[in-house]
Amino acid sequence: MEHVFTDGVGSITVVNGNVRIELRQIVRDPKNAGKLVSEPTTTLIMPLSSLKDATVKLANTMEKIQADEKAKAQMDKQAEDEDALTQL
């Protein structure tokens, strides 16, 4: 299995029942080494029928990440409060 890293998504088109999602990567500008630019790296092609499932899975993952971050922030706050109480 090949792994592809992407910094983001470019254009998304639908052609003949397939969704084409351009994946982009941030690289140094060859003309100006101090500048970063985004360039296409590859295109993900999937049947239109698979797009809904992929979108739902991405959304569920994002919700889980946000819930995990919220839970971690609450635990960190609780630990800080407990530390403050022990300092009294």
TrEMBL record:
Protein name: Uncharacterized protein
UniProt lineage: Bacteria, Pseudomonadati, Pseudomonadota, Alphaproteobacteria, Rhodospirillales
